[in-house]
Structure formats: structure tokens, C-alpha cells
Amino acid sequence: MVLILKNNPEVKKVDELLEKIAEMGLKTQVVGGASHTIVGLIGDTSHLIPEDFLHYEIVDTVQRISESYKAANRKMHPDDTIIDIGGRKIGGGTFSVIAGPCSVESEEQMKEVATDVKASGASLLRGGAFKPRTSPYAFQGLHGEGIRLLLEAKKATGLPIVTEIMDINTLDLFADVDVIQVGARNMQNFELLKALGHSDKPIFLKRGLANTIDELLMSAEYIMSGGNNNIVLCERGIRTFETKTRNTLDISAVPILKKLTHLPVFIDPSHAAGISWMVEPLSKAAIAIGADGLMIEVHNNPKKALCDGAQSLNPEQFDTLMKDIRRRVEFEGKTLA
Ligand code: PEP
Ligand code: MN
């Protein structure tokens, strides 16, 4: 249930209202928007009568939210969430590109890729230090050393870094990471999500291989219920019967998510397609359909990549794509971060 307050409510009256709601055993989330203040009631509200809240003179309207996700619900927060990452904005009319290799492999590789993607206009640098691999014999990532190399690349280029966490026990290693990624395979690792709810780091939450849009929103809700509201959602392709692509990009997830939630929505065309030539058309589709950004894998030598080389662009291909992305983003009336 959400209470939409009248304009400029008296602080004392808002406090009284929040106290009453707390006495009912419910949590609240207060969102101050451009025109209205909204109070979200979190907990079991099934026994409440919405009209009862109209007795409070500061309450304008009351709306029941039937969806189980509350904090992530756009009804709760009509304005787009804009996330600030070291002065760079994500969401709300800004289009951002996160680029970098699937895995951090060496100092030379990270320096080269980071310099190149920055020159082409990427706004964040990615690289996996902990890799969720199907085979235990495949390259598992450089772990702490990988994060150190990412931080070096950040120092050299100024680009904020995004990297995946798989185990909450490694959280200390992420102290200087700008954005923590939760990968597709961990989208429903609820203990990990709960722990990240207490972190102050923005979370890049990827949709699971076989998860519905509602399940993705409930995973965001897990993080938000702990107090961390800085979440970017990412559609990265889902499992279907189709075998021509690595996954099937569910492009319709973008308008659906934009309608249901205020959180920024990204597309990862690299993991969706699994093949580099398809990154360009899927990126164009993402911009046209209203995504807030892209995550693209770029490797200085894709043929030699230790992970996901087939879907990685080389720096020249990425540069060409970025020129096109810039034109298209501006055509949509957005700004490239
Ligand atoms: C990744 O981004 O490196 C990754 C492993 O992606 P996903 O979780 O979407 O498979
Ligand atoms: Mn990858």
C-alpha cells in the first residue's frame, strides 16, 4: 500500500503518521519526488482499510500495490532512479556503456582494454575476477589479484569499475570497487542478496538464465529491503529452445521493466548472443527500445581470451560501435554518459 501525501506536508505531521504506521508493525519507505511525497507501507497490509488513512489531513490518496515487490515498484517511486557513480549518472535520460573483458587476465590486458574503451567513450570498466564457469576445469578468474588489476586500470583511466561477486565472504575485497555485479547464476542466491542489501555499493543485478521478470524484481526487492536502493537491472538473455544464439535476448523485458520499476534497465548483448557480430544489432535494438545502457564484452585479443572470446569485440570493433551508439542515443534525446 502507498500513501501519496499532499504537497509540502508538515514534518511533524509526517512523523506522527510514520509513528502510527510503525505501531501497526509495518515498515515504511518515504520517497520525496519532484511533486509528491510517497510513503510505502512494507509488510502485511491485507487487513488494513485504505480509506482509514484519509483521516490524516496530510494524506491525499491511498493506493494498494498488489505486486509483491514494493520498494522496486514504480507505483512507489514514479520518478526514474538515477544512480551516481563517482559523478557519472546511470538512468533518467543518461545512456551508459559498461565495457571490458569477460575476465581479468593480466596487467597488460587490463591496461590496454581500459585505455581503449575509455577512448571510445565507455563510462564504466568491467572485468570478472571471480568467474562462474560451467566447468570446474575452466579458468576461474584471478580473484583478489584480478580486483587489484581492475583498481590499477581504474587509477590509470579514471573509469569506475564493475566486477562480479559470487561469495559474500569475499566482500572485503570489493571495498574500492564502484559497482558490484550479481551474475545470472546468483540472481536467486538470497543470502548473497540480503547481505548486499546492507552494502552501500550500487549493485548490477543480472537476470537469471531461467527466471521471470517478477523473479528478477523480487531479487531486487531482497537487496532493497535491506536498505540498498542503488540497483541496475540487466537483461542478458534467457534459456529457450533456440540454439542459434547462446541465449535468447528477451528484448521485451525492457519496456515491461521500465513500466513496472523505477530502476535503470541495461541490456547485455554479448552474453545474450554469444557471438560477436550480433552485438551491434542487439545494441541498436536496446537503444531503440528504451534501455538505460549496455554491458559489452571487449577484449584486446578475443581469439586468445580465457573466457567468452567468441562474443567479445576487439577495441576497433567497439570503437566503431560506440560512434553509432552515440548517434542513436542522441537521436533518442538522451545523453551518452
Ligand atoms: C559476466 O558478466 O561476466 C557473466 C558471467 O554474465 P552472466 O552472469 O550474465 O552470465
Ligand atoms: Mn562473459
Question: What would your notes on this structure say?
Answer:
The protein is α/β, with parallel strands linked by helices. The chain has 2 domains: 2-63, 2-Layer Sandwich (Alpha-Beta Plaits), CATH 3.30.70; 83-336, TIM Barrel. It has 9 helices and 15 strands. The protein has helices spanning 11-23, 107-120, 144-157, 190-196, 213-224, 253-260, 269-273, 279-288, 315-331; strands at residues 2-5, 27-32, 37-42, 59-63, 83-85, 88-90, 94-100, 124-126, 161-164, 179-182, 203-206, 231-235, 265-267, 293-297, 335-336. Strand 7, helix 2 (107-120) and strand 8 (124-126) form a beta-alpha-beta unit. The longest helix is centred in the C-terminal third of the chain and has 17 residues, at 315-331. The two termini are 35 Å apart. The structure holds phosphoenolpyruvate (PEP) and manganese (II) ion. Residues 102, 128, 132, 164, 183-185, 206, 236, 268, 271 line the site of phosphoenolpyruvate. Manganese (II) ion is lined by residues 102, 271, 297, 307-308.
Question: Any chance you could write out the topology, listing elements then pairs?
Answer:
Elements: E1 2-5, H1 11-23, E2 27-32, E3 37-42, E4 59-63, E5 83-85, E6 88-90, E7 94-100, H2 107-120, E8 124-126, H3 144-157, E9 161-164, E10 179-182, H4 190-196, E11 203-206, H5 213-224, E12 231-235, H6 253-260, E13 265-267, H7 269-273, H8 279-288, E14 293-297, H9 315-331, E15 335-336
List SSEs in N-to-C order.
EHEEEEEEHEHEEHEHEHEHHEHE
Radius of gyration computed on alpha carbons: 21 Å
The CATH architecture of the largest domain comes to Alpha-Beta Barrel
Q: Are any ligands bound, and if so which?
A: phosphoenolpyruvate, manganese (II) ion
Helix proportion range: 25-40%
Counted by DSSP, the helix tally is 9
Q: Name the strands of the widest sheet in spatial order.
A: 7-8-9-10-11-12-13-14
User: How many extended strands?
Assistant: 15
Main β sheet profile: 8 strands, parallel, barrel
